[in-house]
Write a structure and sequence with these properties.
Layout: E1 5-7, E2 11-16, E3 19-24, E4 28-34, E5 37-42, E6 47-51, H1 54-60, E7 66-70, E8 73-76, E9 80-84, E10 89-92, E11 97-99, H2 102-113
Antiparallel strand pairs: 1-2, 2-3, 4-5, 4-8, 5-6, 7-8, 9-10, 10-11
């Protein structure tokens, strides 16, 4: 049975075995794909395994904050801490490391160059309901 993954304006809802869970986009750190499952890693060490195609998730996530590193990984740019140019490796806040595919290195550099600057950041961070933050809320933490 495929998991229902419902996308909304600022958050998404997952139908899991025990019921439904809702998360803001900004709480999602990265997604690892291991066919036919996606392992979603959230802040506070919350993880869900769902059966859904990775391309479906990528096509519905906000383009401003998420990028595909390689065939099996999507990251939230808010949570990357460093990029190793020599190895094309991205290190996330929780210590996870992902290699960028050659074709995605340039996309990563462009996204980082064009990343919106939010100063001062919203005090509500990922749970922001201020419409003035639209398009930038993913970088508030």
């Amino acid at each position: 049975m495929k998991t229902k993954f419902i996308f909304h304006h600022r958050k998404f809802v997952l139908a899991i075995e025990t019921g439904f869970v809702s998360h803001y986009y900004g709480e999602l750190m990265y997604i690892k794909f291991d066919k036919p499952y996606c392992l979603l890693h959230f802040t506070e060490n919350i993880k869900y395994t769902i059966e859904i195609p990775l391309h479906y998730v990528m096509n519905n996530l906000p383009k401003a904050g998420f990028m595909r590193c390689n065939r099996s990984t999507i990251i939230n740019l808010c949570y990357f801490t460093s990029f190793q140019k020599i190895t094309s490796e991205i290190v996330m806040e929780d210590g996870a490391k992902f290699r960028l595919s050659r074709k995605n290195v340039l996309d990563f550099k462009l996204m980082m160059h064009n990343m919106p600057i939010t100063s001062p950041p919203c005090s509500l961070c990922n749970r922001c309901t201020n419409d003035a933050c639209e398009g930038r809320m993913f970088f508030h933490r």
